[in-house]
Inverse folding.
């Protein structure tokens, strides 16, 4: 982590916190409406760990409780039983050093705030002074490949640009762990490729650990160091697949790699087999 | 797309036509001369009144009652509505009472207000505040409860809490509801202010109408002129609230493309 692109200096080494996984999940279970007639078990038993600096993708058939799992992991939803530890501590609510990028960028970005004010929100909460805030906003906008859009409003930008802003806002306070819930599901294919490359680059620049939920197996293979495959609901971990593809990855080269095809095939079988 | 100048011309045309119709109907005697003055005599009475201090004092008294009533009723509605909107339990407990009180016409409270306060400014304030408080409170409750779940999650992730959450998330989310509620309340409040004067006898435009009516047929044009003034006041107040709404809610879907649509 010595390079700094786009003027963004990484002031934290991902391994500097010492040993231990960033995220540690043990026998996580989530039941909605427990004890009522409409009780529904979304997650049966999920355990895994995420090491610092890792990029982990979670895939599974639709309705496999992927989003529920992500909400439990980020502290947005209480668990029914089991544990989810962030940097060794249980979560009462979303920890300060966690970021989440939602699928629905148009609703996640506050439409009443300009782009720079949107990005400044988490900085204001953390009492970053005005000058530093302005500098940081410029830095992260550059990091996500957006230039001078700070004065504009989210709804004036294209979908892909809006999701870049959402990523920039999540990066602004330099979280240790970034959750992404189907972040590229609502943009067109070309934009999707661009955003996938963007997030890989940003991961390297910021040294942030990423857990990304997707239903797109190609995307999971392209992005991840490891892929966690969930069973249909109530979810269990079906298999954890290590992705041993060369880095840095590129859309043209990586996707035509034989190993990519093999991994893709293997995951597809896991996800579609019932 | 109809061009802007044509649209304005059409509006002015209809306005002039209505005035002309009034003149024809009253001058030819289709409308009884005992109850309807001619348009020209009314307009000249209006012109005369616009130069008098009495009229502007009456306008001032009406607007003062209206503005203070809006401030009191609106302020209370925002505070009470926000508190009720935040707590599901409080909301469930209180909503039946509000629904009942909302349906009580404010005019039905007028006799009570007159008994308590007499023909005073306080009576006017009470009537205006009471009349706008209930519907506005309900509007605020709905607004506060209407925070998008994704916005709520986002606020939680970004650690936006407490008062900051109210300012950054809750209030803007509720703003469209609040704006509609305030715009309707402004019009209602003005009507109630005039009623408090016309029936309750508090000083203002309404009392002027009543006095002119009691003065007999010779004062008929003056009475109509005052009625026109109250109407114009309503247009001005509603227009001002709509303009403020356009400015403050420029980010909202309902307002977003207005400026560009106007230009085309």
């Amino acid at each position: 982590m010595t390079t700094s692109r786009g003027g963004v200096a990484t002031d934290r080494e991902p391994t500097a916190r010492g040993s231990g996984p960033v995220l540690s999940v043990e026998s996580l279970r989530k039941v909605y409406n427990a004890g009522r007639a409409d009780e529904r078990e979304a997650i049966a038993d999920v355990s895994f760990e995420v090491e610092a600096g890792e990029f982990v993708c979670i895939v599974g058939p639709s309705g496999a409780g992927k989003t529920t799992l992500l909400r439990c992991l980020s502290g947005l939803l209480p668990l029914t039983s089991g544990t989810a530890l962030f940097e060794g501590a249980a979560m009462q609510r979303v920890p300060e050093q966690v970021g989440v990028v939602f699928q629905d960028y148009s609703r996640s970005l506050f439409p009443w705030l300009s782009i720079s004010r949107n990005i400044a929100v988490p900085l204001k909460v953390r009492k970053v002074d005005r000058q530093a805030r302005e500098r940081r906003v410029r830095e992260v906008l550059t990091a996500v490949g957006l230039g001078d859009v700070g004065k504009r409003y989210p709804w004036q930008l294209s979908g892909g640009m809006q999701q870049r802003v959402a990523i920039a806002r999540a990066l602004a306070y330099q979280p240790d762990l970034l959750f992404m819930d189907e972040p590229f599901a609502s943009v067109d294919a070309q934009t999707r490729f661009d955003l996938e490359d963007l997030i890989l680059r940003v991961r390297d620049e910021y040294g942030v650990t990423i857990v990304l939920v997707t239903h797109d197996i190609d995307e999971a293979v392209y992005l991840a160091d490891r892929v966690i495959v969930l069973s249909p609901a109530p979810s269990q971990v079906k298999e954890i697949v290590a992705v041993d593809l060369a880095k840095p990855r590129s859309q043209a080269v990586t996707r035509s790699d034989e190993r990519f095809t093999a991994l893709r095939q293997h995951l597809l079988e896991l996800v579609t087999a019932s | 797309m109809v061009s802007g100048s044509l649209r304005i011309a059409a509006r002015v045309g209809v306005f002039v036509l209505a005035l002309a119709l009034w003149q024809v109907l009253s001058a030819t005697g289709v409308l009884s001369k005992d109850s309807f003055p001619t348009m020209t005599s009314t307009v000249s009475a209006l012109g005369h009144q616009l130069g008098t201090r009495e009229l502007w004092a009456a306008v001032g008294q009406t607007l003062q009652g209206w503005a203070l009533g809006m401030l009191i009723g609106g302020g209370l509605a925002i505070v009470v509505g926000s508190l009720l909107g935040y707590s599901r339990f409080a909301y469930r407990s209180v909503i039946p009472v509000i629904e009942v009180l909302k349906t009580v016409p404010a005019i039905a409270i007028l006799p009570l207000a007159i008994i308590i306060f007499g023909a005073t400014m306080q009576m006017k304030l009470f009537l205006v505040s009471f009349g706008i408080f209930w519907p506005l409170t309900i509007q605020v409750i709905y607004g506060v409860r209407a925070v998008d779940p994704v916005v709520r999650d986002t606020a939680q992730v970004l650690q936006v809490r407490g008062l900051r959450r109210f300012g950054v998330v809750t209030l803007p989310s509720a703003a469209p509801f609040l704006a509609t509620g305030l715009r309707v309340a402004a019009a209602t409040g003005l009507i109630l202010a005039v009623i408090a004067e016309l029936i309750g006898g508090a000083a203002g435009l309404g009392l002027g109408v009543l006095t002119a009516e009691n003065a007999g047929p010779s004062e008929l044009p003056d009475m109509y002129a005052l009625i026109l003034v109250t109407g114009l006041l309503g247009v001005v107040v509603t227009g001002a609230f709509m303009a403020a709404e356009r400015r403050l809610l420029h980010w909202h879907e309902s307002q977003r493309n207005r400026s560009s649509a106007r230009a085309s």
